[in-house]
Every structure is written in C-alpha cells, then in structure tokens.
Amino acid sequence: MSTAKQRSLGRPRDARADRAIVAATLELIAEAGVDGFRVDDVADRAGVGKAAIYRRHPSKDALVAAAIAAVVSDIEVPDTGSTREDLIELMREAVDVYADPVRSGVVASVVGAMRLHPELTRAVRDGFLTQRREALRAVLDRGIGRGDLASDLDVELALDALGGALFYRLLITGGPIDEHLAEGVAELILRGFASTKEKQS
C-alpha cells in the first residue's frame, strides 16, 4: 500500500479537538496575553497533546492567527431590505463580540501585540478586520445603490467610523458597548453620509 493511500485511510481529524484547541487559545490570550500563554497551557486546557496542536498549527503564531479568525468566522451579510436595519444588525453582532469578556480580552491583547508580531498583524488585517469590513462594505454599497447613501460616499472612512467607535470604547474609554452604541453609530453613518434625496426627505 502506498504512503499516500495509507494517509488517506488514517483517522480523520477530530472536530471536537479543533474546537477545544481554539476555545482554549482564546481563553488564554484573554487571560495572559499573546506573549503570556504557552502551547503547553493550551494542551492542558483543551485536553489534548501538544502534538495534536502542532499537527494543526505549526507555530504559536499560526495558532493565535487561527484563534483570531474563529472570532469572526460566521459573519453573514444581512439583507433585510433596509440599509438602516442591515447596518444595525452588523453593529449588534460586533457589539456581541466586544461585549463578551473572552473575545474582547482577545481583541485587546492582540491589538497590543500587533506591533511586535508581523505575522499576527497580517492575520488580524487579513482575517478579523477584512471579514467584518467586507460585510459592512456590502451593506454600504447596497445603500448607495438604493439611494440611501451618497453616491460619492468615502466608503473607507465610513468603515473606519463604524468600527472605530467600538475599538475606542474597548481600548481607551471603557465606555458601555451595547445596543445603544450599535444603533447610534449606524444612525451617525446614515445621517452623515445620506444622499441628497435622503437629506431632503
């Protein structure tokens, strides 16, 4: 039997172990920071061997990147028929992330570590940030198409404004991250970047 065929007949990877490893990594990043936890700690908390972790993630940075990606892995673009409701729905999902002690702790720890970890910076920008921004971009583009938002909307600025308020409260002021914030930021975008038609109505 060929080596390739032997591998194909091998035991499939355990999805429960995958989830346990990611969950343990997120908890430990939130508790100890990116540089403060060890792969041994992940193995102990997840109830797996270190070899099982390294088969999935060849380095600690790769493990951290996978855990960060899992924070936003299930983002879907809403299509309620209303630009306002779509924006609020996405902002509520973001509030759920930033209000959760583990996930907010992960975000805060990761942001603090990005300057010293280029691979981590790429993972955050290409995974966590890109997925959320692309979902918001799709809603903004539809809003422009519907005439709810200005045709010359600076989409990048609007995206920064949508995410910036949450980051500022999480990392700087410690203010409440709640539904009131989600709705307020969405309304700010809708009014500040409204089309001429909307401003006149």
Please tell me about this protein's structure.
This protein has 201 residues and is an all-alpha fold. It has helices at 3-8, 15-32, 39-46, 50-56, 60-71, 83-99, 101-113, 118-146, 155-173, 179-192, 196-200. Mean pLDDT is 87; it is low at 1-11.
Summarize the structure.
The protein has 11 helices and no strands. The chain is mainly α and about 200 residues long.
Order of helices and strands: HHHHHHHHHHH
Tell me the distance between the termini.
74 Å
Question: Which structural class do you get from the secondary structure elements?
Answer: mainly alpha
The largest sheet, given as strand count, sense and whether it forms a barrel, is:
none
Low-confidence stretches: 1-11
Shape summary: elongated
What attributes characterize this protein structure?
74% helix, mainly alpha
Helix-strand blueprint:
Layout: H1 3-8, H2 15-32, H3 39-46, H4 50-56, H5 60-71, H6 83-99, H7 101-113, H8 118-146, H9 155-173, H10 179-192, H11 196-200
